[in-house]
Specification:
Elements: H1 9-31, E1 35-40, E2 45-48, H2 50-56, H3 60-73, H4 75-84, E3 86-94, E4 100-112, E5 115-122, H5 124-173
Amino acid sequence: MIVTSQDITKRKHGEREESEKTKLYFSVFHEASDGMSFFNNEGVHFDVNKALCEIFGRTKEKVQQKLISFFTYNKDWIKELNRKGEVKGEYVIEHSNGSARIIEYVAKANLLPGKHLAIHRDITNRKTLEDRLMQAEKLKVVGEMAAGVAHELRNPMTSLKGFLQLMRYEKETNPTT
């Protein structure tokens, strides 16, 4: 009978650390306030967090279906992601309540070989505020232009008014003319 033994303490310790790291990563993924999704080179989203489900207002399965149809619609998008390593952009979704939502995303390629991460953020309110700010700026410029035009019209009108008053005064003081 031959017996061999090998000390595997370091390997077991390393496996335990790896397991704890994996749990930590998944905890961060599922508890993050931004929407996150993992997907593969075919655009199949195999995991989404609850923040992303809240952004869409749908169940995990429905969100995965929506994302698959959005990201696989443009096959070149994943090729670009693999080439650049990171892709940013925006897309519009219909929330379950019927409202249109503008979503900004950043996708990172190959966190694991062939596995990518996308972070999604609802920027609808920010875009609305930007539009309102731009509209307010336009109204401010129009108001300034209107004030300038009114000022330019008042100057000659004031002169005409003064001449009319002089003519009336002359007529009253010299009725024969």
